Automatic annotation (TrEMBL):
InterPro entries: 6-hairpin_glycosidase_sf, 6hp_glycosidase-like_sf, Ssp411, Ssp411-like_TRX, Thioredoxin-like_sf. Residues 1-108 form the Spermatogenesis-associated protein 20-like TRX domain. GO terms for biological process: carbohydrate metabolic process. This is Spermatosis associated 20. It comes from the Eukaryota. Transmembrane segments: none annotated. The gene is SPATA20.
Amino acid sequence: MEEESFKSKEIGDIMNEHFVCIKVDREERPDVDKVYMTFVQATSGGGGWPMSVWLTPDLKPFAGGTYFPPEDGVNHVGFRTVLLRIAEQWKENKDALLGSSQRILEALRHTSEIRVQGQASPPPAKEVMDTCFQQLSRSYDEEYGGFSKCPKFPSPVNLNFLFTYWALHQTTPEGARALQMALHTLKMMALGGIHDHIGQGFHRYSIDQHWHVPHFEKMLYDQGQLAAIYSKAFQISGDEFFADVVRDILLYVSRDLSDQAGGFYSAQDADSYPTATSREKREGAFCVWAAKELRALLPDPVEGATEGTTLADVFMHHYGVKEAGNVDPARDPYQELKGKNVLIVRCAPELTAAKFGLEPGRLSTLLQECQQRLSSARAQRPQPHLDTKMLAAWNGLMISGFAQAGAALSEQGYVSRAAQAAAFLRTHLFDPDSGKLLRSCYQGTHNSVEQGAVPIQGFLEDYVFVIQALFDLYEVSLEQGWLEWALHLQHMQDKLFWDPKGFAYFSTEASDPSLLLRLKDDQDGAEPAPNSVAVTNLLRAACYSGHMDWVEKAGKILAAFSERLQKIPIILPEMVRATAVFHHTLKQLCFLPPATYPLPGQVVICGDPQGEDTKEMLHCVHSVFSPNKVLMVADGDNAGFLYRQLPFLASLERKDGKATAYVCSNFTCSLPVTSVQELRGMLSP
């Protein structure tokens, strides 16, 4: 529509004559987007972007839709005609339009309300978990992984749920299938074209069933969630393949999406100019290759391979390159990828090596050399546009990705990068006077960081993703300042967003009169719904602070969503996972001369965080996937905050002067354990 309609002088003149036109960045203002998308979905039966909505002067919607072509066609009305008809109706039938708008709004208020019904309680975890697993299993693609035919999205929320389901059902066939579904999906994604094999990171989604041809946009929130889920895959499987994917994602983010001040940029566009002299951008131009181009870049004969073999032969075979291009024309309606290749691993390394008479280790070296050459060549192409907007919520997801990777891979550099980004949030997206988060800031001139003239206040998603990130960062860095800030933000979130009547959190504050509806997101999508993450955050916060009212709040959220969780849990897999955590004991791990009474499932480890014996236990904790553990470490001067929050910690002692673990259940602690092997057994789901 930008090219077809908004750049048209004729259409622009019509818009400016009859309407006050406002362009909204839905990433900056998800609250505005959500209200009017709800209207468009209710009145048209569908939704999506670009979205055009016509409002009264007091912001009430009366017409809307998604894509409009510029002119009328056989089966559609053009944008020009829509504009003129609406302008005419506003002059001739204004009262009817206003009445219709008011009736629709009242209906939306009723149908979009999520609230606790009667004396509803949290739904039973087993039934909800089993139903969600069955629904995912039925939609699973056995050959290529994922949960639809096409388009195919990474959907980290589904994979996170499957890992938790496996952890709680390890000895059952269902548990084994859950693990297989998740690991196979992650492997096929990493081998596919949705993964950028030259520039690293993951594209937005695949337009086909095979994870081959992507929509080439790269989003920060995908990188953060995928770094975390691939870290879990490595914890569970021990397969270095998954660890390498984690490193790949974080290399891309560190190089291309990082601001010098420490924050993370939002996205990299899908389209770019094919050459410096091109006048039109093309989707994927920065990422795709012609076979002729690859042969020119990789002409070297391969020593020790079958006679006549070049680097190009090996690379092109391994990555499915075809002389005429490997993109199905049916998937390329505008012929932007004609004659081009999207790299996708088509052969196991052993098969590629065997075809050319190479040792597998030698093949790996050759492919790395090819990737480096192609990376250098690609760097000479015009770069896609970089969206240097920095959002609190998405930065939170990326901090979690770095922190969880640092823990699972024992990479201190990742932990340091997470801490740098958290410090950026505290400096640029937190108002210490009000104690509130801000939504966004921007790369300014001369590498400065700028705010808008009127800063946008943080939304619920900003709070929950930042709180989650701070908990993740605390557990791997042991810096109690992050924990203290997380608990402060949890109190502020309760104050700003909690619904005391219907339970759960609204997505927006009550203080903005321009918003016609206060809504609660009811689906996990590309990002988990804020209330889904809030449940786990509240449970973690209770373990860190001893405030049991947070456990009660977590239960009230699950009660408010109980009907959805029991009927269609597949739309809320992250909240289903949180339901299991709520019903199963949270394992709380504390390293300290450690808490009024222990909470069920706590594991307390008393020891000096700098001591080698404590470090061994910490490494053990970080190397084991346990979906319901909470880790605390404190000792000596560094333990003051935790001692004040959890007085029972002071009653636990080291055994024989060694770092000592205690597992707590039913509000009592087990016998002390000093063996890492025993601790590993205690942590296993």
